[in-house]
Design goal:
This protein has 162 residues and is of the alpha+beta class. The chain has three helices and five strands. It has a five-stranded mixed β-barrel.
């Protein structure tokens, strides 16, 4: 269990490991699939950094991916924002500020989505929070996965005359 987390009331802290046989696998898979289908959406207020933005044209609603800093125990969420909220998220991203947004956290096919998103607002950070966020983002940027498809698969070869 991570720092600051407690065992819920009525639960045992030192539960014994559970062993399964290969014959249990089909039932466990079905139970897992049923859980994902039936997992309820929950209201949340998330604080996160904008890591990806996209929309079909220069104006209108758009999709935003947030790296979750607080408010939900998931690493990232995607949400669709109206034009004004999309603009606010873009400005916050350019200023290096996280945003706070509320909605309902849902699971769709293993992806986390925030539906009914609203109340998008930039969040001011004190110096200690800004340093922590900068270090976390720098660690993400050092990973080739951060750049997605923009990362070339082949080695860089300088042009003749470089």
């Amino acid at each position: 269990m991570g720092p600051g987390r407690r065992v819920p009331e009525g639960c045992s802290a030192g539960a014994e490991p559970v062993e399964f046989s290969p014959g249990d696998l089909p039932v466990l898979r079905e139970a897992g699939a049923r859980y994902l289908r039936a997992e309820p959406s929950v209201p949340v207020r998330i604080t996160g950094t904008v890591v990806r933005m996209s929309r079909s044209g220069p104006a209108g609603a758009g999709t935003v991916r947030l790296r979750v800093l607080a408010g939900a125990d998931v690493p990232h969420v995607r949400t669709t924002l109206d034009e004004e909220a999309y603009r606010i998220a873009g400005h916050a991203h350019l200023m290096g500020l996280p945003v706070r947004v509320h909605g309902r956290l849902e699971s769709r096919g293993g992806l986390r989505r925030l539906t009914g998103a609203g109340g998008v607002a930039p969040v001011r950070l004190d110096d200690a929070e800004r340093d922590r966020l900068a270090k976390a983002l720098q660690a993400d940027q050092e990973s080739p996965a951060f750049f997605g498809d923009a990362c070339a698969k082949e080695a860089y070869e300088p042009e003749p005359g470089d």
